[in-house]
Amino acid sequence: MSRAHVDHRAIARFAEERVNLPRDKADEYRAQARRLREKLETYLDEHPNFTLRRMMLSGSLAKGTALRTLNDIDVAVYISGSDAPHDVKQLLEYLAERLRKAFPNFSPDQVKPQTYSVTVSFKGTGLDVDVVPVLYAGDSAWRGNLVSQEDGSFLETSIPLHLEFIRKRKRAQETHFAQVARLLKFWARRMKQEREGFRFKSFMVELILAHLTDQGQDLSDYPDAMQAFFTYIARSNLRQRIVFTDHYPVSDVGKCFDVVQIFDPINPTNNVAKLYTAEQADAIVDAALDAGDAIDAALSAPTKELTVRYWQKVLGSTFQG
């Protein structure tokens, strides 16, 4: 494939300038989450029987796959105690009340229950922290029941194990795993803006990329890596079951008739794509086919102008080569 007009370096440069969350912003946001955690830890030291046991940074900022467009931070709070409600609405009110106790300097309007989380707003930076409750019973690996942000159901999970799952793939392909994940999430975000009803959540993007990494896909050349991702979706029709064996054997995954099957690497009963319909899966396949065709055309285009035009079908009009 030709790299005469747009090569790996051009895609990497675009990622730094347009896709990635700048390092200083990432450090600022992590520091903000850390200050919140430290306030909670100070309160826990003074009130050892307090039911909020631990606060952990989660989501794309914790995994190192955040985009420049990041406007909130995901944090999980582990809640113990027999009096913690198991009704989602009541649990969120319970969490909000205790966060207000732990952070007495926050005004009531800075701590607000949402549908499936509690938002803590910082007046100085204008950044929101979405706090998701995890019901915790003392497991040493910090497994607990987290409130799903899709449908409000309780899902067994472990934030530390999830973060280690991603770190393992990042160690296998240093720099490149996280960067390709960000490029693909950037593409998926564009598709959501351009195609009505398009759905492709970031966790699914990361898990498909992790699957390809585990299969030996080299991610060090970004055009090739992105093309491999789109080719996998097209060839599998997004109907190939994906299971990881980091924490359980394949046999632990039971019968499943969901259209798309991408299983949580920590919980074999949780298909993270269970809510996707055939129509939504086909829309992802169609978008991947279009992106793959555009990259193929870009890599064989005779002029830079034409090459850039094809890449813009994948990365948007701000890409100038």
From TrEMBL:
GO terms for biological process: defense response to virus. One of its GO terms (molecular function) is double-stranded RNA binding. One of its GO terms (cellular component) is membrane. Keywords: Antiviral defense, Transferase. InterPro entries: CBASS_cN_synthase, NT_2-5OAS_ClassI-CCAase, NT_sf. It comes from the Bacteria. SUPFAM superfamilies: Nucleotidyltransferase. The keyword Transferase applies. PANTHER family: 2-5 OLIGOADENYLATE SYNTHETASE, C2H2-TYPE DOMAIN-CONTAINING PROTEIN. NCBIfam families: CBASS_cyclase_a. This is Nucleotidyltransferase. It comes from Azohydromonas caseinilytica.
